[in-house]
Specification:
By secondary structure, the protein is of the alpha/beta class.
């Protein structure tokens, strides 16, 4: 179960969460793999150094091979020389890791189930904001009792809510089709809307019915 709030932070009841998304046993290994893959894919991989063949100069042998009592040298651009090339230095590369889709979905469901077990999954019924105002977003977080990092999962059409939330430093905003295990684990509280909490369940091959997402009043009766 997750508590349902209005856009002003007032509590309006509870909603039943899909057990296939919010009620599974978290797979820690899969979550670790999902987070590792996302952080690796975010690396630029653009660091580059020059080898001895790419450094300017060094075409002539600095001194003859024998007879001077010094170590033999073939080029002043060898790695041991100042200004020489770099041996085994970094080159542009991709750090991305291949992660199967089923593993990504399991990582997200595991992370959401972990947050749901901590009662840190909340639902906003609708954003009834006419104009973007950060003050409204702050009032919503205060009403829900959210003090730390929060992840809002909203629809793409919720532009007013997006512009109201994006200025807050401890708030991340995403959509149901873009949510990742890293986003969920980064946040301390995950906030859905009445539409996105059902859409997320549908992504996992689950067809939500009206019985699964029935809002209940605070007295325990169904509304």
């Amino acid at each position: 179960m997750a508590k349902v709030y209005g856009s002003a932070g007032d509590e309006r009841g509870e909603v039943a969460l899909d057990p296939e998304v919010f009620g599974i046993e978290p797979n820690v290994a899969v979550m670790h793999q999902g987070v590792t893959a996302q952080l690796a894919a975010a690396r630029a991989g653009s660091a580059s150094t020059k080898t001895r063949s790419e450094v300017r100069g060094g075409g002539r042998k600095p001194w003859r091979q024998k007879g001077l009592g010094r170590a033999r040298q073939g080029s002043i651009r060898s790695p041991q020389w100042r200004g020489g090339g770099v041996a085994f230095g970094p080159k542009p590369r991709s750090y991305s890791q291949r992660t199967p889709k089923k593993m990504k979905r399991l990582a997200v469901r595991s992370a959401l189930s972990a947050r749901a077990a901590e009662s840190q999954v909340k639902v906003v019924e609708h954003f009834e904001w006419d104009v973007p105002r950060t003050k409204d977003a702050v009032a919503l977080l205060k009403g829900m009792g959210v003090a730390g990092k929060a992840l809002f999962v909203i629809g793409r059409s919720e532009q007013v809510a997006l512009r109201s939330l994006r200025n807050l430093p401890q708030v991340m905003v995403t959509t149901p089709d873009q949510i990742t295990a890293y986003d969920v684990l980064w946040s301390e509280t995950v906030v859905f809307t009445a539409d996105t909490v059902g859409a997320l369940a549908g992504r996992g091959g689950y067809d939500p019915s009206s019985d699964d997402f029935v809002r209940e009043d605070t007295e325990g009766g169904a509304s």
